[in-house]
């Protein structure tokens, strides 16, 4: 089994575990990002209070809305990303060693090369898995709530434009088949790639994350006491901390893109308030600035930092442990096979 395949499978397994643990936080964060009500979003409701509110008004199951397609998406995303990342990195390392032999470099893969490898892997991941995340976002943002309109007005007026009030929410359950059909009816096949532009730009998030992680990991492995901590020179807890720090830095830098992506992937209200209707990426940017200000691009960032840092730390730790376990099993199988041949 190749190292790329081992890391791809381990990344998928680690991603599923981290997703299961942090999913309620992810659901609340997606709702915060897609909330257009400025007064409501600036209220003092904390993450735990919002979780309790969802449970009280809609039931426990709504905290796990879209869990199954999300797990599929996480496994696919992490598997695709790690698989291509290690293929590209192995080729970069081979090229670096060739350059070392002719005296051009020291044989190591530089920061810029690592950044490019992560960006290329992330772009392939986005293009292949974006339809899954459109479905997940729709399911996470579906709410049990009634629409309240002024019976005397009948119409909503925004910036001098009149429009019909939003239709009543579709009854739950809002299952995967329902969402796929809805997305297709609204935008055809292209609807499954809503938000792909900010998603492609946002590949700098894992690029920054992995660049920081790889840099810190290499430095820790080179410590004088590295050999005392196992074959990789670092403990599982240290990997946990490195993953958390790397994700924290990447999340703070790229969060506005994540909010924009969620807005575009969520269900567009085409009959109600024009502030809730986005024709595309730039239209969403302009309307968010005009109606919500720069604050709108950072809605729910506190929740996201907690969720993403925790998820990334768990993912990195579990991925490294799974890789070690698989490699150890393969080494034992190879040793046993060799002994049997000698006998």
UniProtKB/TrEMBL annotation:
<comment type="similarity">
    <text>Belongs to the mitochondrial carrier (TC 2.A.29) family.</text>
</comment>
<feature type="transmembrane region" description="Helical">
    <location>
        <begin position="109"/>
        <end position="128"/>
    </location>
</feature>
<feature type="transmembrane region" description="Helical">
    <location>
        <begin position="67"/>
        <end position="88"/>
    </location>
</feature>
<dbReference type="InterPro" id="IPR023395">
    <property type="entry name" value="MCP_dom_sf"/>
</dbReference>
<keyword id="KW-0813">Transport</keyword>
<feature type="repeat" description="Solcar">
    <location>
        <begin position="2"/>
        <end position="91"/>
    </location>
</feature>
<keyword id="KW-0812">Transmembrane</keyword>
<keyword id="KW-0472">Membrane</keyword>
<protein>
    <recommendedName>
        <fullName>Peroxisomal nicotinamide adenine dinucleotide carrier</fullName>
    </recommendedName>
</protein>
<keyword id="KW-0677">Repeat</keyword>
<dbReference type="InterPro" id="IPR018108">
    <property type="entry name" value="MCP_transmembrane"/>
</dbReference>
<feature type="transmembrane region" description="Helical">
    <location>
        <begin position="234"/>
        <end position="258"/>
    </location>
</feature>
<feature type="repeat" description="Solcar">
    <location>
        <begin position="234"/>
        <end position="325"/>
    </location>
</feature>
<dbReference type="Pfam" id="PF00153">
    <property type="entry name" value="Mito_carr"/>
</dbReference>
<keyword id="KW-1133">Transmembrane helix</keyword>
<dbReference type="InterPro" id="IPR044712">
    <property type="entry name" value="SLC25A32-like"/>
</dbReference>
<feature type="transmembrane region" description="Helical">
    <location>
        <begin position="192"/>
        <end position="213"/>
    </location>
</feature>
<feature type="repeat" description="Solcar">
    <location>
        <begin position="109"/>
        <end position="219"/>
    </location>
</feature>
